[in-house]
Amino acid sequence: MTAEQSLPAAPLTPSEESRWVVLAHIGGLLSFIGPLIVWLIYRDRSDAVERESKEALNAQITYAAAALALYVVGGLLAIVLVGFVFIIAATLVQLAGLILAIVAAVRSNTSGTFRYPLTFRFLK
């Protein structure tokens, strides 16, 4: 067998699937890198892992973009002493992303799925 002809990866067992779903959400504590890694590696081996890692990835990208935008606006407006409100808002968005990643990990482990609120669906 040549390098181009590799065998398809075996499907995940239910316990492995549950583990990677939780890790996809907990990976959100590292911003979008954790869910991205899980999605890239396991998307072909489990529908549940693909769905949940995409959900976590979409949420973390949304929260990172919102926080970055708020930091930029806050930095620009800080010149006129109003920007601190945006910097506080950006910090709260990042904190919400961390808290929601933990909630998603717990809920997806018990019920199997979690939808993040206020999230753009970049990956469908």
Automatic annotation (TrEMBL):
Primary location recorded for the protein, binned into one broad class: membrane
Entry keyword Transmembrane helix: yes
Pfam family name, one: MamF_MmsF
Topological relation to the membrane, as annotated: Multi-pass membrane protein
The entry's keywords: Membrane, Transmembrane, Transmembrane helix
Domain of life of the native organism: Bacteria
Membrane-spanning parts: 20-42, 63-81, 87-106
The keyword Cytoplasm appears for this protein: no
Subcellular location, record wording: Membrane
InterPro entries: MamF_MmsF
Protein name (database record): DUF4870 domain-containing protein
Organism: Microbacterium luteolum (Aureobacterium luteolum)
Organism lineage: Bacteria, Bacillati, Actinomycetota, Actinomycetes, Micrococcales
